[in-house]
């Protein structure tokens, strides 16, 4: 373990791995079920929830959401692009939770908030990847087209605390 790697206890590592696999499996099954129909469809019975989901299906947005869920599920299960995929899944989780709380059923009152909680817990666990997004770089950042492509992902500038694209003025 290097000096820059956060020290996380064994239990926390297994808990994060379990949450990642659980959430990834849930997303993958949910996304694939929409296309393959191996489980019963769960369109909300409440008129507001039913109208919302029906409108998303009619506009094709539900197809996009389910493709995102499949990609998120595969990524979480394989451990690839986890922080990016958790961020991509966040609006979907918020919508699912909001819909579950607006049109509650005995099942959705638990599954909706659980969806958002799992997403947020995993985002906190991978929080070190989001912290650079919150930094203000100010004048040291410039247009990407002014930096030679070979320097875009240079690790030398990152080790000195500079912006990954280099210092361009």
Q: Could you characterize what this model shows?
A:
- The protein is mainly alpha-helical.
- Helices cover 60% and strands 0% of the residues.
- The chain has two domains: 125 residues, no CATH class; 33 residues, no CATH class.
- It is built from six helices and no strands.
- The two termini are 36 Å apart.
List low-pLDDT spans: 157-169
Shape: globular
Main sheet specs: none
Termini, distance in Å?
Answer: 36 Å
Strand residue content: under 5%
Mean pLDDT rating: 84
In which range does the helix fraction lie? 55-70%
Multimer state: single chain
Fold topology:
Blueprint (H helix, E strand, L loop, with lengths): L9 H27 L10 H13 L1 H18 L3 H21 L5 H18 L29 H5 L10
Helix pairs in contact: 1-3, 1-5, 3-4, 4-5
Gist?
This protein is mostly helical. Helix content is 60%, strand content 0%. 18% of the residues are buried.
Descriptive keywords:
6 helices; mainly alpha; 2 domains; 60% helix; 169 residues; single chain; disordered C terminus
């Amino acid at each position: 373990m290097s000096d820059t790697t956060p020290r996380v206890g064994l239990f926390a590592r297994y808990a994060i791995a379990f949450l990642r696999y659980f959430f990834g499996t849930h997303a993958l099954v949910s996304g694939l079920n929409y296309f393959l129909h191996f489980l019963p469809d769960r369109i909300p019975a409440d008129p507001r929830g039913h109208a919302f989901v029906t409108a998303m299906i009619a506009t094709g947005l539900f197809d996009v959401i389910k493709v995102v869920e499949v990609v998120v599920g595969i990524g979480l299960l394989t451990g690839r692009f986890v922080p990016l995929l958790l961020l991509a899944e966040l609006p979907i989780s918020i919508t699912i939770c909001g819909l579950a709380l607006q049109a509650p059923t005995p099942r959705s009152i638990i599954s909706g908030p659980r969806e958002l909680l799992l997403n947020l817990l995993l985002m906190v666990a991978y929080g070190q990847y989001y912290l650079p997004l919150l930094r203000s770089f100010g004048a040291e950042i410039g247009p990407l087209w002014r930096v030679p492509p070979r320097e875009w992902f240079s690790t030398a500038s990152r080790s000195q605390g500079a912006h990954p694209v280099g210092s361009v003025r």
